[in-house]
DNA sequence: CACGAAATGTGACGAGTTTAACAAAACGGA
DNA sequence: TCCGTTTTGTTAAACTCGTCACATTTCGTG
């Protein structure tokens, strides 16, 4: 467990990588070959200094007086984000939100896809959405084992989350993204992440009121 | 730079308020009258010390040797979050995601609701979803003016975001939550917030790989 | 009413993160 | 090739946030 040789990359830097990657891909699509931190800063709304520091954790990616090569950055970040490695996901809870995710199914990311879906409601089981057939919960274990999936998205209601996530973990899932804000108790090795749409809206409203005076950067 | 004007409330504290509020409401529903930071900590998965520090920014809300009065906390936080003030929202882009938001429509928060929806697709316009009729973009200005709305959710694709958000701002919207990760250029007084589901999943995968190589160099 | 128990509110510290400032490096035109 | 300009990578300082530790306050009971 003494894992000291790997250069430790700050959590905040890692969390900005997807943003950088996506923005760079857009720029490349528009034909942009090179970019300087200042311009990438206006595109991403991140301070140029922060961008340069972030990039520096992955080596000397740029050239002074020139900037960064967009293609090179995309290659490097794509490798770190493992966008080439197919990332298969399971979905539990095919309601309003689950259905939306399934219909879109990350169509812009060819290597990321929900490949199986589960629900407890007999009225939904068997339905085919975007080439994925909704399966009963009883088949969850066998399916994710055979597909070797270790990451799941949960769009079940709060009151089912504890039970559902425990079942997911029992069957080998190690990372869960939940859209229900219910805190759950799980083994420490499980990576649980919440995405509460209601809180996001509340935060938007909060920050827009109070941040008024103080945001003088 | 002596910025000791109002007691500035840390951003992280504010972002936890919705979690506290919801948890406290659940506790109240179950009949809990009082709570100590330790128990609220296990319920929210937040360190008790952090909870006490957070609460302290809003005054001395608790009593030593006793804990906090649940009803009192709910009142205080409800006021800060303005849950009593109805928060009406506009939605633009009634696709997969927009439809899901509209169908659910924050049903657990009685004072927060999407009250109007807009789309450019004639095939969607006129459709009624959860008592909201999808309107054409041409009516956006008049509708949000008459309803006095200043906050919007955008679920239009990336390539439409700049155009759509500019139109929203022109018509009085001051806060936007976008599900498309496209950076846009808007006046400074606009509060723009992104919620990129793809990035969220990538982050989940990235963080779960801590301990494995991936970033060695 | 007094006293041990319980729980809060906060000074202090440290880890993590952002930002300003600048020296060094590389570009590109003459 | 030379030189002013541009832009990076990084050092150091500022800032934010979470947690320890504990003095303080209040509870609840004998
Ligand atoms: N859709 C939104 O706009 C929105 C907004 C805020 C929060 N949320 C949260 O997202 C979550 C999902 O929202 P939704 O609108 O899709 O809800 P939904 O009710 O439409 O869908 C939930 C699905 O989960 C299934 N389910 C329930 N219990 C289950 C179990 N034990 N095992 C397997 N499947 C089970 C149900 O059959 C249903 O299909 C909810 O927790 C909700 O609070 C949604
Ligand atoms: N649904 C997902 O799982 C998912 C995942 C990751 C990202 N996203 C992002 O969320 C956004 C919405 O996703 P979706 O699946 O709902 O897409 P969608 O294509 O189903 O819906 C988009 C809607 O916006 C409308 N629209 C397009 N241009 C418009 C314009 N100029 N004015 C008004 N309306 C316009 C369309 O008519 C359509 O109804 C996309 O940017 C997508 O990249 C979605």
From TrEMBL, chains A, B:
On the tree of life, the source organism's domain of life is Bacteria
**Keyword Repressor: yes or no?**
yes
The record ties this protein, via SUPFAM superfamilies, to:
NAD(P)-binding Rossmann-fold domains (SSF51735), Winged helix' DNA-binding domain (SSF46785)
Q: Which residues bind NAD(+)?
A: 93-98
Q: Does the keyword DNA-binding apply?
A: yes
Keywords, A to Z, come to: Cytoplasm, DNA-binding, NAD, Repressor, Transcription, Transcription regulation
Question: Where DNA binds (residue ranges)?
Answer: 19-58
Q: Which InterPro entries match?
A: CoA-bd, NAD(P)-bd_dom_sf, Rex_DNA-bd_C_dom, Tscrpt_rep_Rex, WH-like_DNA-bd_sf, WH_DNA-bd_sf
Q: Which residues form the CoA-binding domain?
A: 83-183
Main localization, broad class:
cytoplasm
**Location within or outside the cell:** Cytoplasm
| PANTHER family according to UniProt | REDOX-SENSING TRANSCRIPTIONAL REPRESSOR REX (PTHR35786), REDOX-SENSING TRANSCRIPTIONAL REPRESSOR REX 1 (PTHR35786:SF1)
**What does this gene product do?**
Modulates transcription in response to changes in cellular NADH/NAD(+) redox state.
Which family, according to the similarity comment? Belongs to the transcriptional regulatory Rex family.
Subunit and partners: Homodimer.
Alphabetical list of HAMAP family matching this protein: Rex
| Protein's name in the database | Redox-sensing transcriptional repressor Rex
At the highest ranks, the source species' classification is:
Bacteria, Bacillati, Bacillota, Bacilli, Lactobacillales
